[in-house]
Amino acid sequence: MYGSLSIVEYDNHGKKYHEEDPKKLAEFEARIERGEKIEPKDWMPYEYRRQLIRMIEQHAHSEIIGALPEGTWITRAPGFKRKLALLAKVQDEVGHAQLLYSAAETLGKSREEMINDLISGKSKYSNVFNYPAVTWADSAIIAWLIDAGAIINQVTNAKGSYGPYCRALERICYEESFHLKYGYDSVVHLATGTPTQRKMVQDALNRWWTPIMHFFGPPDKVSVHTEILMKWQIKMASNDAMRQEFLNMYVPKIWELGLAIPDPNLKKNANGVWEYTEPDWNEFMRVINGDGPCNKERLAVRRVAEEKGRWVRKALLSPNEKYVTPLA
Amino acid sequence: MKFLDPRVNRLNLPKEYNEGFQQAEELDQWQTYEVFHQRSRGEQHVHVGCVHAPSAELALLFAKEQYARRSKCVNLWVVKTADITPSNYEDDDIFVPAVDKTYREAYGYKVRPLINTFNQSSSSNISSKVDIQEIIGSNGKKSYIIQKII
């Protein structure tokens, strides 16, 4: 559902850019310049590998954790058709995590290590999933607008330089198109419904607007410089560029439904650029570092799943073992 | 601990889930199988990705869930990743013929320049005489024998 390097962290321990073999680095950069994909066994700079692992891993975790706020509504989905659709959507998201974990594994981090890092809280995932889906309308807003943001993100990233990630994203984007239509359909249904339904979807939009604005990451003027990541085609568009694209595509659609966006300063200026109130970035940093409404329960649920599934995975690990009747 | 999601509360999670947890050991997620997908009969099987599975049988099941969810599929193959030996991209010069092997290509044969050169040189250097004999057959029809004399 989500993946980008919206926050860049640098590593002071690994090999620095200027410490790389200059000849290999030049060949590598020329290959990216020509639009060729980098494959797992190719030579790559330390920082390229590290940033990609971090990004793809976070993306995979986001798919897994992102299934939780929506998954909780499967049993309470209004109507059989929506129940089936939501079930399929959530299964898609978990499937996306499988694809993404595999892509990250090609860079040398095992799936077990990634799972451990998620559960211990070392790895991050998309901040939006630390907020609760309080009502059915929240799950509809997630399916429409969070998936819309994710699609913008993923379509952009699918043009990146790392072959396995691009191939996974192409497959993911294909499935996401259904999520978007399903989410839109659910929101339209509420927005064109009874006053109670309209209020329900408006309340959900009010709750989710800040997380949606947070979704693409801090504004370019405060985020760490990302030139090298853009040059290596790991990060394909700036946070602000993607946020603008989102606003441009979806604000008119939201307004068309007669819904109000909780930002009095939101408007498109004469240059075609969207102006808006910056969301609270301190809240963003606080939540991403563990102090959000749902951080603890998301990880607790993951831990339960890991713990409860362990014996099944272990049992399957040695399928050739035979049961022997105890002797005494 | 009280959670926001009522369904999570109903799980009655024991406290220790919020503290330490058992680390996933090696092979906790099993090994990987590479998946090949055939869109329709008669087409090639195409590599589409991999799955983690404890056996080939389950790898097929997971591959069906993962890779045959939307697009058309008539057949799947799974192969243990460990059983695949890839060539190395850094050795891509192995695909460049070491010597000139145009002799095994149709375009490696060009006769026209030779013929042209030959014809030009024959007309200028070699003077040839032609002897023509006229023969009248028994039916009265004329025919000719043309002979080139060098």
SSE diagram, text form:
The complex is a heterodimer of chains A (328) and B (150).
Chain A: H1 22-33, H2 46-71, H3 80-105, H4 111-119, H5 136-157, H6 163-191, H7 195-214, H8 227-231, H9 239-256, E1 267-268, E2 274-275, H10 281-288, H11 295-317
Antiparallel strand pairs in A: 1-2
Helix pairs in contact in A: 2-3, 3-6, 5-6, 5-7, 5-9
Chain B: H1 6-9, E1 31-38, E2 46-53, H2 56-67, E3 75-80, H3 112-125, E4 129-136, E5 142-149
Antiparallel strand pairs in B: 1-2, 1-3, 4-5
- Identify the strand order in the major beta sheet of chain B: 2-1-3
And the CATH topology of the domain at 30-84 in chain B? Ubiquitin-like (UB roll)
Order of helices and strands of chain B: HEEHEHEE
So, CATH architecture of chain A?
Answer: Up-down Bundle
Binned, the helix content of chain A reads 55-70%
β content of chain A, as a range?
A: under 5%
Output the number of helix runs of chain B. Answer: 3
Main CATH class of the domain at 30-84 in chain B:
Alpha Beta
Strand content of chain B: 25-35%
Q: What is Rg of chain B?
A: 39 Å
Chain pair with largest interface: A-B, 45 and 38 residues
Q: What is the subunit arrangement here?
A: heterodimer
The CATH level-2 architecture of the domain at 30-84 in chain B is identified as: Roll
Count the beta strands of chain B.
5
Span between N and C termini of chain B?
Answer: 113 Å
Query: Order of helices and strands of chain A, N to C?
Result: HHHHHHHHHEEHH
Q: Number of helical segments of chain A?
A: 11
CATH homology-level superfamily of chain A: Ferritin, core subunit, four-helix bundle
